[in-house]
Design brief:
The structure holds 2 protein chains of 2 kinds.
Chain A lengths: L2 H12 L6 H8 L5 H7 L2 H25 L1
Chain B lengths: L2 H10 L4 E4 H8 L7 E6 L3 H11 L5 E2 L12 H6 L3 E5 L2 E6 L1 E2 L3 E2 H6 L1 E6 L2 E6 L1 H11 L2 H20 L3
Parallel strand pairs in B: 1-9, 2-5
Antiparallel strand pairs in B: 1-2, 3-4, 4-5, 6-7, 8-9
Helix pairs in contact in B: 1-3, 2-6, 6-7
The chains are: A mainly alpha, B alpha+beta.
Amino acid sequence: MTSDERDALIALISDPPRGSKLAAARDFGMDLSLFVSNLELTPTERARRLSATVSFFDSVRVIIRKDR
Amino acid sequence: MDLESAIRSLHREKVEAVLIGGAAMALQGSSLITSEMGFCYERSKHNVERLAQAVAPHRPRLRDASAGRPFRFDAQTIERGSNFKLATDLGDIDFLAEVPGLGFYDAVQRASVTMNINGIDCQVLSVAGLIKAKKAAGRPRDLYAIPELEALEELRKKTGLD
């Protein structure tokens, strides 16, 4: 993502047009700024991040089960 | 979960399959987290054989089944069934013959885009395809994902980002 693309993205999510899907998602409770960090990653980085996040939650789940 | 290794294993055996569901959403830029990988696979005899070969080294067993129940994820088993929810050494993987709202592999493949994952070209269900599938599935967790996917689709159209 170039800096111009990033600026355009931030401008769009900072003030989504009324009636847009972006505005609807914001009103639904979504943090639109997450799009910036997600779209900055390559697909490979997104795959690795998903795997790492799920592994983290799995290890937390194991710890919680052990503590019960 | 080891999504990269799952993709590499399928690619190594030349399995025709499209990444779908939450893992596809994550690759498309979604923030929602899923604990399983999902693939829609092509049902020809050769592809089913390749799929069984690709998954075999990762000790596939049925999820939600009582432990110790005999199960072999081989070509014969795949041909007799259609959708499989597996636990493997790479994490939980769902293999579906059909995706709600889209249909069988050919339709799902047409609704997919190619993404390069660490040097491997992988078919990933598009954001528009994900929206159709989630709407058709209609479970609360699917419907919860729709506002984000629709916003993502709009964002991509307006910015050209992928």
